[in-house]
């Protein structure tokens, strides 16, 4: 358990968790002339002739912007852009350590949707991808969707896309152990924020035919009037096609899978006991799940997953976002789709291998070697999927991508050791 005083002292000691480090030396006049003036003008004019050459000559092809307005930082809520900066720095560090991606935290001093979209559009020439992070719903959906339509680079929303990929991977393995098929099961998702909506979207794409999303008002269905928004109306078109009404307790009766992207205490033992045989429970609220791991097992859950690291089956975004974004950057992607996310989920699900068991449906996040391999495998699969679906500007070999990711992560580990000795 981390102590507040130790955390604050550590942050103060390092004055942030990331820094910019040069990739070339400037020790001679020739080097100065090459990397700055006058030599750099050749690169500038070459890019002017063909904008895509910016990927060849600059950091664009390995960089992502992490953008927030500070309105939904972790479980802390609307705490502002300055208070959100430590989180964005931490995310940038994970991108580098587990994906070899240079990520830049950008905390905006506006909560206006149009201004956020304008700002991201205007800075987009610098980056190969955009990661929208910790922005309140439903605004985050509109921002991401608008940018995807306007930009020629991928716009990734980790709360929506990353959580969905990791959850689908876990569901694949849980269903394998339960002897059930995704097209036959009844799924209930509690929570209609970014994570809940994203999970429902990807499960639907993967073949789940019976999904019901529940919010504080009850089951979401097409035509519901109360407490609806842009994304709830969209998700209502592909879920709960029977237009069932009722609260979570009523919807969960007979369900095979119960997924929480909501709040602590939202699930009860009685709910789990009302589910179908071999019930699968993903209680993903952080830091406290919808129901404690052991309570869910005592209630008869066949498999339980949470977002916590101190119980088995941790559903951790770390398994997904570094490798996904690295893969998108490798092919200089123009965007991405559900097919690419589903392919990443399959890679993650297979990574547990012969260890697959009721208490091991997800990889171990503390196994650093496994995390590196996952990042390489996911990046390679994303590059392949991007080329298949026409999102790639360049074609690359999967095997080459996997090798390069592993090498870049090894290099970063060596740099970490050097930094630690300073």
Task: Give a written overview of the molecule.
- It is built from 17 helices and 10 strands.
- It is an alpha/beta fold.
- The protein folds into 2 domains: 4-153, Rossmann fold, CATH 3.40.50.10380; 161-422, Rossmann fold (3-Layer(aba) Sandwich).
- The strands form 2 sheets. A 6-stranded mixed beta sheet has the order 7-6-5-8-9-10. A 4-stranded parallel beta sheet has the order 2-1-3-4, with helices on both faces.
- A hairpin with a 2-residue loop joins strand 6 and strand 7 (218-219).
- Helix 5 crosses helix 17, helix 8 packs across helix 15 (338-350) and helix 16 runs antiparallel to helix 17 (398-421).
- It is globular and about 75 Å long.
Descriptive key words:
alpha/beta; Rossmann fold; four-stranded parallel sheet; 10% strand; globular
Short structural description:
The protein is of the alpha/beta class and about 425 residues long. It folds into two domains: about 5-155, Rossmann fold, CATH 3.40.50; about 160-420, 3-Layer(aba) Sandwich (Rossmann fold), CATH 3.40.50.720. The chain is built from 17 helices and ten strands.
Bulk shape? globular
Query: What order do the SSEs take from the amino end to the carboxyl end, as H and E?
Result: HHHHEHEHEHEHEHEEHHEHEHEHHHH
**Number of continuous helical runs:** 17
* CATH homology-level superfamily of the largest domain: NAD(P)-binding Rossmann-like Domain
Amount of beta strand: 5-15%
* Sequence stretches where pLDDT stays below 50 over 5 or more residues: none
Query: What percentage of residues falls in helices of 4 or more residues?
Result: 40-55%
Which CATH architecture of the largest domain?
A: 3-Layer(aba) Sandwich
Radius of gyration: 22 Å
Mean pLDDT: 94
């Amino acid at each position: 358990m981390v102590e507040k005083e130790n955390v604050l002292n550590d942050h103060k000691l390092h004055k942030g968790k990331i820094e910019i480090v040069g990739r070339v030396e400037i020790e001679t006049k020739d080097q100065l002339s090459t990397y700055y003036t006058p030599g750099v003008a050749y690169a500038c004019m070459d890019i002017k002739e063909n904008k895509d050459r910016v990927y060849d000559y600059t950091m664009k092809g390995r960089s992502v912007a992490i953008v927030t307005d500070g309105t939904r930082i972790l479980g802390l809520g609307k705490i502002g852009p300055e208070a959100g900066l430590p989180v964005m720095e931490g995310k940038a560090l994970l991108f580098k350590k587990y994906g070899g991606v240079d990520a830049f935290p950008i905390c905006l001093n506006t909560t206006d949707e149009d201004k956020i979209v304008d700002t991201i559009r205007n800075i987009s020439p610098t980056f190969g991808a955009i990661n929208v992070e910790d922005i309140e719903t439903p605004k985050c959906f509109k921002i991401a969707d608008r940018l995807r339509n306007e930009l020629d680079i991928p716009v990734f929303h980790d709360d929506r896309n990353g959580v969905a990929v990791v959850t689908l991977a876990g569901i694949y393995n849980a269903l394998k152990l339960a002897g059930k098929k995704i097209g036959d099961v009844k799924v209930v998702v509690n929570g209609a924020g970014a994570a809940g909506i994203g999970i429902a979207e990807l499960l639907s794409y993967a073949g789940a035919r019976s999904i019901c999303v529940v919010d504080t008002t009850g089951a979401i269905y097409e035509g519901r009037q109360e407490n609806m928004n842009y994304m709830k109306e969209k998700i209502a078109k592909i879920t709960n096609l029977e237009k069932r009404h009722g609260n979570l307790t009523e919807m969960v009766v007979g369900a095979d899978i119960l997924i929480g992207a909501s709040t602590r205490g939202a699930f009860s033992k009685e709910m789990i006991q009302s589910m179908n045989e071999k019930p699968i429970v993903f209680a993903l609220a952080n830091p406290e799940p919808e129901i404690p791991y052991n309570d869910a097992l005592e209630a008869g859950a066949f498999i339980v997953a949470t977002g916590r690291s101190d119980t088995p089956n941790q559903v951790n975004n770390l398994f997904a976002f570094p490798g996904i974004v690295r893969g998108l950057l490798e092919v200089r992607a123009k965007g991405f789709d559900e097919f690419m996310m589903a392919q990443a989920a399959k890679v993650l699900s297979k990574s547990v291998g012969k260890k697959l068991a009721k208490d091991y449906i997800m990889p171990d996040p503390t196994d650093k070697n496994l995390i590196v391999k996952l990042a390489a495998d996911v990046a390679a699969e994303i590059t392949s999927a991007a080329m298949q679906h026409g999102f790639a500007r360049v074609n690359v070999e999967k095997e080459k991508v996997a090798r390069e990711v592993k090498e870049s992560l090894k290099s970063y580990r060596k740099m970490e050791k050097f930094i630690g000795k300073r």
